[in-house]
């Protein structure tokens, strides 16, 4: 018992003696490793100023080595000035990254735009500057972080506190250590710059598109709003401004040693439809871009979402909006791809296709997309005449001398009824022959007044447009839709308001044509697009039997629902046999309903078709075969 008590007493003395004689650091936590999960791993790897309120481990280590760790949290700007002097003396590129990260973190804490501008300058010097040894490896995390710090800091340094837009103003700006004299260079931006407004794409969420197309690189991704009506022939109220995908780049002249005397910087604006990379210090630098945000903003800012049913049932307001819309200003040397929507629809239904196709760098660089909007309840031949005339007007306006080969290699893509309008850009019809087949008399024998005969000839005298080289049909009812003969379709047809000139000529034709030759129902009311898509409609059947001009290439994309074989299948609106055409360059079937524009197979096929079209235009032998 005494032994046990003595054993307990001895260690107590030893512990007391150790506490008096041994430094406390010897009792620190032992170094070891512990297993951790993947989430903890990523949290550790991603720790930096971009993702939280702490700097990365290497930057924190530099703060500790320079004995500035405590000072930074009390006086970040003063600390950055001190660190700048150290970096200049030691010529250390790693210190440039640390200052970029710490300046960005200080900007987040204080909201100081000068801190953000300093972060952007330091990130630029770390990535592209002349000092501090060899450039950083693009495989390192600091390289990727520096790109993001540069992009985000530049946006926040120039953002207006009033409305959130970016202001490009020349003049002096303060940095945490020194100053920067800013110049503005808009020479590379190919569009109108008067009244230009710039919105930061990063601050906008994109809703309604399946994926967001973004190109990685340097620069602040923007939506550039050209303050003028969108180009085209469509009426007032569709687009009040043109949205252009753009990137803002800050080019720095000089290095960290020059900051205290004053650096010089240039703010350069680029259209990312036209330029995806630039040259900086003998290096090729890709530009950050966000085309999806531009598409979404342009559609949101327009009246297109309200057009579909209004454009189907007609009325004066809808008819005034008919015509071509150019989502961005016309550019010579780019192939127009004209997208024509279907019945009770509008151009916004092409959004997913635009988003997907513009993700392809070849297509984005060489194609300009045009949208045709029309009152889809009107007779097909009447709407098609408007399409042909508007396309001709654009060609006459932009290339009166016929020198733009790309403009004269146009692709017209039509969905549903839009495919019928599309076909009427690629066939030959004679008005007198059509009148003879449909009404039993040539047009000249109907004894219409001059205005009425001119309207019919405008609609029925059709020649293949010489500048259309390819047509693409999506879910097109070449031989009609089985829905068009249903009673509900006939009921809806009575509610469609067609233009007065169409009403007048229809009544005159009824009065002057042999009663036994008039198409069914024409005696009671003016034909609409629903009547035109009835499988028994004479004009439709005539158009179906009319071959496409052999000069023009044609492709078909046909949805067949859930059917395993095309024969006997339909998409809920159009049967396969109605959509099928002989002698097309290609045809694919898509497991989709009628609205197939956003289906992956449709997008893949459209990308293939456009790439092939561009290759043929370039004279590539493999593409021609």
Enumerate the strands of the largest sheet in spatial order, edge to edge or round the barrel.
11-13-12-14-15-16-17
Number of self-contained structural domains: 2
What structural class do you assign from the helix and strand content?
Answer: alpha/beta
Averaged pLDDT, please? 84
CATH architecture identity of the largest domain: 3-Layer(aba) Sandwich
Helix count, DSSP H or I runs of 4 or more residues: 24
Low-confidence stretches: 1-22, 307-319, 486-496
Q: Over the alpha carbons, how many angstroms does the gyration radius reach?
A: 34 Å
Helix-residue proportion: 25-40%
From the N-terminal CA to the C-terminal CA, the straight-line distance is 105 Å
Biggest beta sheet attributes? 7 strands, mixed
Assign the CATH class of the largest domain: Alpha Beta
Describe the structure.
This protein is an alpha/beta fold. The chain has two domains: 246 residues, no CATH class; 321 residues, Alpha/Beta hydrolase fold, catalytic domain (Rossmann fold), CATH 3.40.50. The protein is 40% helix and 16% strand. It has 24 helices and 17 strands. The strands form four sheets. A seven-stranded mixed sheet has the order 11-13-12-14-15-16-17. Strands 1-2-7-6-5-3 form a six-stranded mixed sheet. Strand 1 and strand 2 form a beta hairpin. Helix 7 runs antiparallel to helix 8. It starts with a helix and ends with a helix.
